[in-house]
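task queued by scheduler; priority normal; single chain, no ligands, no partner chains; default sampling; output format set to structure tokens
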Amino acid sequence: MANHLEADRWKEEIIKEIHQSIAVTSELARSCGTEIVEAAALLLTCLRGGGKLIVFGNGGSAAESEHFVAELVGRYRTDRQALPAIALTTNSASLTAIANDYGFEQIFARQLQAIAKPGDIAFAISTSGNSPNIVCALQSVRRAGLVTIGLTGVPGGELRDLVRVCISVPSDCTPRIQEAHALIVHILCGIVENAFAQNSYSGGKIKASIGEVR
């Protein structure tokens, strides 16, 4: 059992962390709302056109990549058709073979070369935007006809200039960025799911503004 002094310190830390998280997420609509809407529109165009979403990241961003895919292949809130999405972080045999034979910086690029086709979306998640394997993957698809979206923090690193749409969370603190990334993924899943479930897609445009996302 913690003594009273320890408990008080922990409570202060808990309150501080929560307030920091709230401060970052409350800025999302203002700082990157337009980019979130643009990303949602690209996702709908891709999926409606027969393309697939390919997501990748390292560490916590790898977990977020798999979370994103799970919400689309399964469901977010509503029953609807399964949507084609793949996380490049799930096949340990491929990851270790590529890392061993070509280097760790090639683990995503090599997989994209194998499975991506024009019209697909390469969705990179990196809190810093400078992870070598993320940068290498995005560089490898620049002339392959893929749509690229990045989810990062500030200032965005090399990733910012390598993607068509960059959603940059207004923070340079890794835990706060990751928390905001989870919220953004949920927002994107909600917009996409509603479009498929309610047939609200029209000409590749999103009718709802970011202010309507709850």
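post-processing summary
- The longest strand covers residues 147-152.
- Residues 200-214 have pLDDT under 50 and may be disordered.
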